[in-house]
């Protein structure tokens, strides 16, 4: 018997324009895989994507007053400030209108990735329950897999935990989407075996999730059928699948599809050899993310990283010298907003990115329950709701004054131009300004070359 299924991808929340930017490519790959699987089985499938994938002109619109969802506390449990969170995506009224257009479904499947965005997901589940009281509502994705008891509070009939292994074998059918995206995603491997202090991605064994030859076939088919030319890898640490990655790149080079590739979930820098970088260049890789995390050895040890800042700088400098446009297209990430971190960690890491030739991309710490960073900060977080652990609320900082100072730091270390950063840093408190000046002097000594001391 044919079943009627509705799949819903909820909107997310953002505190500032930088966070809006992070969602620009958060496409519903996994949910669309499941929808494609059911469509192939003969089910009647509708796919409702509430996200909006904004370009540069749309970022400011995302922070309009009418998109304000709620306010949340900023700083730790001792602070008094609050700030607004804005909806990035379509409103619940849009969902109601779309759901009213067709017959009542037998089942509704809702996904959710980031735990501190759970409120929009719960609102979607409640809306679907109100409109379709007899439908079975399922909630899956990374958030319910990590926090199933909390996800059950949504009112969903079922919380799906873990991977949908049948769907892993399916390449999503873009025909189910209302609008063809400007880029699409692909997967090669699942999981990361490292246990970084701020990350929930660790698995015991890294697995291949797709045959490289089939992935290349799928990318070619999507390019021909839908005109999509840019594809972004969505694996948390694709370098742990070196054999699969190498085979994939070889096939792209061999078959010569005219596509642009991006690896922006993170390329482990100590595993990026000149040979792999050359293959990437020949295969049409234009953008990637190189995690720096910190210039301080003690911070890297705390994080549990298997590499140091020198390896990260060397990786970017090597690609820069090979002709990659690293200053615009290599996002170099680092964590800030850790209680008690040094000013040197903040500014030296920023200038290490610029010295190597990368694009600085700071990430405010979002201390997720179950991680070591959460346990380390727990005395200052106790009683905070999941929705209050959004890093852009600076949930670990100890005073409203420190929160305001970090707002300024964040703007400074997001600047790809050191002179603009210096202008913003001109009126920092004396100790911060002096540290900024010391690190800028180091940066001005000249560009980093592979093998240079840090």
Structure explained in plain terms:
With 454 residues, this protein is of the alpha/beta class. It has a domain at 1-169: Rossmann fold. The chain is 39% helix and 17% strand. The protein contains 18 helices and 16 strands. It has helices spanning 17-22, 29-40, 92-99, 118-131, 142-146, 148-152, 165-168, 212-226, 242-255, 274-283, 297-303, 309-322, 326-329, 343-356, 372-381, 400-413, 418-425, 430-443, and strands at residues 4-9, 12-14, 44-49, 68-73, 82-88, 107-111, 136-140, 158-159, 183-186, 189-190, 207-208, 230-233, 260-263, 285-293, 330-336, 359-364. The protein has a six-stranded parallel β-sheet. The chain has a five-stranded parallel β-sheet with strand order 3-1-6-7-8, sandwiched between helices. A three-stranded antiparallel β-sheet has the order 2-5-4. The longest helix is centred in the middle third of the chain and has 15 residues, at 212-226. The model has no long low-confidence stretch (mean pLDDT 94).
In what range is the share of β-strand residues? 15-25%
- Under CATH, the topology of the domain at 1-169 can be stated as Rossmann fold
Main beta sheet: 6 strands, parallel
Write down how many β-strands occur, each being a DSSP E stretch of 2 or more residues: 16
- The assigned structural class equals alpha/beta
**Residue-averaged pLDDT:** 94
Helix content: 25-40%
**Which blocks of ≥5 consecutive residues have pLDDT under 50?**
none
Query: In one word, what is the shape?
Result: globular
What is the CATH level 1 assignment of the domain at 1-169? Alpha Beta
Number of helices: 18
- What strand line-up does the widest sheet have? 9-12-13-14-15-16
CATH architecture type of the domain at 1-169:
3-Layer(aba) Sandwich
Whole-Å distance between the termini?
65 Å
How large is the radius of gyration? Answer: 22 Å
Fourth-tier CATH superfamily name of the domain at 1-169 = Cobalamin-binding domain
